[in-house]
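[09:14] KT: can someone run the structure on this one? pasting the chain below
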Amino acid sequence: MMRKIRRFVCMIIMLLTLCDSMTLFAQRYGGLPRQAITNRLLISNGPDGPIQGGESAVTDMVLFEDGWIYGSTKATWGAEQCHIFRTNGEKIEHVLNVTSEIKQQTAISDLIMGHDNLLIGCTSTYDQIFDEEDIDYEGGHLFSFDPETGLLDDLGIMAANQGINCIAVDTVRSLVYGVTYPAGHLFSFDLKLKTVRDFGEVMTPWRIKDFGRISWRGVPKVLMIDDAGTVYFSTYLRTEIEMAKQEQMKGGSTSYSSLKGGRIYRLSPGDDHPVFTGAVIPTQVGMDSDPLYENGIASAIRSHDGGFWCGTINDGFLFKFQPSTSLVINKGKTFQYWNLKSLAYGGDGKLYMLGGRDEDNSWIMSYDPTIGSLACLGWPENTAQCNVICADKNGRIIIAENLRHSFMWVFDPFKVSR
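[09:31] RB: done, structure tokens below
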């Protein structure tokens, strides 16, 4: 009888241990505090909806004065449509199928706020299309969209057979600046005259084939504009180094190219070519020569003192850049991963950061400028792969995924337990 009782007690202990371990697993150790995630929304609408599976990978989001956040998507997994949607953190509304208005465009690569409350965007397509020998892609377009009227104005192709990687607007001079992809040319578009000016190549891109995927590294991912209308971006400095006589081979090259990444360049109004500012972003030394290692700025946001908070691509450093003095202040990094893809100010005054490799979990981090502290807060959900964050009118952080069926999470900084 006692043996049966002991056996029963052992079984109870084993069940309790199993339940406890399942509870810990369900909590997904390392995730954002559950009480701080106030909503979870699915962006795709199913096979019959306006945004179908494969069309909901979010590329950017912009907060408008009316309280709506307007977002853009790109097609993945062979889909062909890209969209504009809007959200207030409580629901998602489809706004426009951009591909139905501008043919061949499968991705909205960037969104910015223009003058007169207009949304300005740029388009591109799949990387493998740029790698085709006989490319039939006409080129990426600039467009403006009026949320009040719902009308899209196609501003045209900026460079034949090239996509557009990123844009920024000088509202004073009515100029939109952009970088082509994969050629890496800086250009400007005059919104009044409807003219394009090419400032030449700012980065000779590296063609990389990684796990069967083709991409071009080194092309600037973000442009920054200060109050004077000067444009800043990070790129690579190429120098030719003469080989020693002992290194040279008969009939071979007498020099080799050296690439140094993370150099910040500027183009001032009236200049014909960008110039090196002398500023170099924080980096782990000695890795620039590896083409899989892309050293540049992944994200930027204006700081309250007129400078820019910036996040680096591979190393994941947070730093401040002061344009007036070309000063770079390194604030460090909060975790071992890299790629600070997106930055946003929360209602609590902290700077929130989205980080993580493209094919891995996305993490949310914060920087408190009042005390200079960095914190790694966790992920919205295990396996969530996100591309952009944006603050809503209430100071909550909207986190958007970039998968075939993409979700959106609403993170409330005020509901994080102290």
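[09:33] KT: thanks! The two ends are 51 Å apart (CA to CA).
[09:34] RB: yep, looked fine to me
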